[in-house]
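Propose amino acids for all 212 sites.
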């Protein structure tokens, strides 16, 4: 029996926008790691990649909000918060419609478009996990925003993410490897074993050669 890392895709995940604030800087990223850990006290964990600006701001400020993405969320929401870095763009700038979010009492945005619930969280503990930090948080407020079903990772893969359309070679005959998570393309015959997608931070195992 082979060791197939795609078994990780069979684990059940929801999808969320984790938003933060540092001074005047508002930011957010897509995550699939918000999980309830305990009910008394009510604790929710979030694991964020250390390469993300959202990670750095949350580690500094200890406060964030979580917006639970529903099956009404469109691909543009995933692109906006997941396929670009807040180090390069203002995710809550003029190009993001103010009708898509509101500022909560803690000053942190809550995304409302394609969202069915939200949580205001305070970090109580941080655990270093190597590539990620695990933030254990306690909600100060939570509410339901719609009755739409939550968007699972599987639903996103099957119904939201566009299907690959490009061939596996460039006009120069170079091989293309496409990230199955965000669509980023790496050009080269072989990928380095330690390659990390610059957009979604997933490893080489999440890339595949695109063929006609």
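Proposal:
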């Amino acid at each position: 029996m082979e060791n197939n890392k795609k078994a990780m895709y069979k684990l059940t995940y929801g999808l969320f926008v984790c938003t933060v604030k540092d001074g005047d800087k508002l930011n957010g990223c897509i995550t699939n790691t918000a999980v309830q850990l305990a009910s008394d006290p009510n604790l929710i964990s979030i694991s964020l990649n250390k390469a993300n600006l959202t990670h750095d701001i949350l580690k500094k400020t200890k406060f964030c909000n979580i917006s639970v993405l529903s099956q009404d969320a469109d691909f543009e929401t995933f692109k906006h918060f997941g396929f670009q870095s807040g180090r390069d763009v203002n995710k809550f700038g003029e190009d993001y419609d103010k009708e898509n979010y509101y500022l909560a009492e803690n000053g942190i945005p809550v995304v409302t478009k394609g969202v069915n619930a939200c949580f205001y969280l305070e970090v109580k503990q941080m655990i270093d996990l190597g590539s990620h930090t695990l933030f254990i948080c306690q909600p100060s407020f939570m509410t339901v925003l719609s009755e739409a079903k939550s968007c699972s990772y599987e639903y996103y893969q099957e119904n939201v993410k566009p299907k690959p359309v490009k061939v596996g070679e460039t006009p120069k005959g170079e091989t293309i490897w496409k990230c199955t998570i965000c669509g980023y393309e790496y050009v080269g015959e072989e990928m380095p074993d330690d390659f990390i997608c610059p957009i979604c931070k997933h490893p080489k195992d999440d890339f595949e050669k695109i063929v006609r």
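The two ends are 29 Å apart (CA to CA). Residues 163-212 form a domain with the Rubrerythrin, domain 2 fold (CATH 2.20.28.10).
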